[in-house]
Design goal:
Blueprint (H helix, E strand, L loop, with lengths): L1 H31 L2 E6 H4 L7 E9 L3 E4 L7 E4 L6 E2 L4 E5 L4 H30 L6 H9 L24 E2 L2 E5 L16 E12 H10 L2 E7 L8 E8 L11 E3 L38 H33 L6 E3 L4 E6 L13 E5 L3 E8 L11 E6 L5 E13 L15 E8 L10 E7 L11 E3 L4 E3 L2 E7 L5 E12 L3 E6 L6 E3 L11 E3 L10
Parallel strand pairs: 1-27, 8-9, 9-10
Antiparallel strand pairs: 1-26, 2-16, 2-20, 3-15, 4-6, 5-14, 6-13, 7-8, 9-12, 10-11, 14-15, 16-19, 17-18, 17-20, 18-19, 21-25, 22-23, 23-24, 23-26, 24-25
Amino acid sequence: MKKKVVIAILIVVLAGGGITGGVVGYRAYQNSKLVAEVQSVSMLNSGFWGGSMESDGTVTNGQQQDVYVSTEQTIQKVFVTEGQEVSEGDPLLQYDMTNIDLAIEMKKLDIQTTENNIAVVQKELEKLKNTKPISTTASTSAADNTAPSTPVTPSADTSVTTPDTVEEKTGDAYNYISTTAQPYIGDGSQENPYRFLCTKEAYVYGSYLNTLKSEGKIAVFEIHDGNTVDGALISAWTKVGAALEEVDPDAKWYVIDGSKVVDEPDIPDIPDEPVVPDTPSVPDDNQQSGYTADELAKEIADKEKELTKLDLDKRKAELALKQMENQSEDGMVYAEFNGTIKKVGDPDNLPNDGSAFLTLSGSDGLYVKGTLNELALEQVKVGQSVTATSWSTGMMFDATITEINDYPEDANGYYGSGNPNASYYGYTAYIEDSTGLSNGDNLSLSINLGGDEDSSDKIYLDKAYVRKEDGKSYVMKDDGTGHLVKQYVKTGKTIYGYAVEIKSGITMDDYLAFPYGKTAKEGVKTDKGEDSGTAMY
């Protein structure tokens, strides 16, 4: 009898082991069909190679002075015409200084608003990075098990919610701003504008904007956390009466983003029938999000791009503010060198594509234009030397940097070393002895960064390639045999909000995969693709 019992138990154990082994084997089989694309750390690195900054450049026959005019500025007079020869110090144009103080205050408010938006996006990004994705299977099952909702039959009462039925305030915060609204502080002046506390759903009536225009006042519509003035500022929308146009008094604009409210069709009331409440969900620290791994990765990437754009907007606004504050008392802009006027715009029709209003081109000597990785901006200055090598003859030339652009170049125009996804800034260098060079020649450019003997070992990765687990950072690395492995790394400082320093754990010779999605698993096969010129392992 005991012998039979032992045999029965053994059969059950073996069967259980067979099932477990079958599941593990099936998963291993599924993983064996996945392939993860990997790229070398040297390509993903946003830092510098070998203590120098390399790029290609083209020889030009002169310097260039671009004059940009913002929408807050008004041109009083233009002194030059296209094709005109000018000398250093000649007047080019003059701004109307009447509203310059107002323009400066508006630009400061723009910078503050952008900083607030950056803080909001950073919080959203951090929340996404701490979010646990749902599995594709779970998402599909949940959708299949969801019963279709029963359509609601409209009642005979087709009345709609009108502005009169909306509560003007929720606590201290306005739901809408009309001519009867009162600010919590401010007198409407440049130094002390009206400040209104608003809800996230709040909107402003055109009638109030028209009042701002007629009275020449300035108002800031703020949204704070918790709908209290003491709460953290979420966003701020500024309107300057002097810059407004007359609008429809009944039109509405959302405070949260300044967009116009689109009137919706009449919505019938829901009939008075008992409503069965949904079963409340129980809070769970391990509760999953509504995103799959692939969707979550895309959301994170989109937020990173939005943050980069906001950072660029802020830097542009800061540059415009600096230019306004540095204007001479007479608002005059002068030629910085001898040259020819290549472009003059229409003062009544300013460029809206970000291009310069006026361009002055130099005529003396030869120059070369190159590009800089944004991480090198702090190390490279005007006056620094550049070594240039001709593609056609191999001759070497010394050049001196005369100008570094304030805005990054179009990424499609960059052909230097380092991460192509980073921002690159154009610079101009003067070649004093240009014998053997002609306008249009191509050169290889090298700038010795210096000051950091270990610069060749520094690694900066896009934060999207670094994940966290139990407070530790890791990447998904090729283990050298053609399979992914989780590699923990030690991180350092973060540069410009998107690149994080990797102090240890990987080298320039390693290959990494994007750590999100169904292929981001240990044991998955890797494919170096075109990065190494070889096929999959």
